[in-house]
Design a protein that fits this description.
CATH superfamily: Nucleic acid-binding proteins
Strand order of the largest sheet: 3-2-1-4-5
Number of helices: 0
Low-confidence stretches: none
Structural class: mainly beta
């Protein structure tokens, strides 16, 4: 069985809810696909900004040998 790994990608995320340690988020591929969003639970420490419900963010991996990075939407960063 072959395994397909994404070596570069941009995911568009929206925060669904937060508590004191975690955020429940929806993640979409960019460009969007017919599969719909994936739901994930991420630690708040993964975000380089303060987040709240409805905030948009991006998970970006531009080079195969680099780790993915979470970036906050500039409109949401305060």
């Amino acid at each position: 069985m072959k395994t397909l790994l994404l070596t570069t990608f941009i995911l568009v995320g929206v925060v669904d809810s937060t508590d004191t340690q975690f955020a429940t988020v929806e993640l979409d591929l960019n460009p969007a696909t017919n599969a719909g969003p994936a739901v994930a639970v991420m630690p708040l420490t993964a975000f380089p900004c303060k987040i709240k419900e409805g905030d948009k963010f991006f998970v970006v991996k531009l080079l195969p040998d680099q780790a993915a990075v979470v970036q906050c939407d500039k409109k949401e960063s305060k």
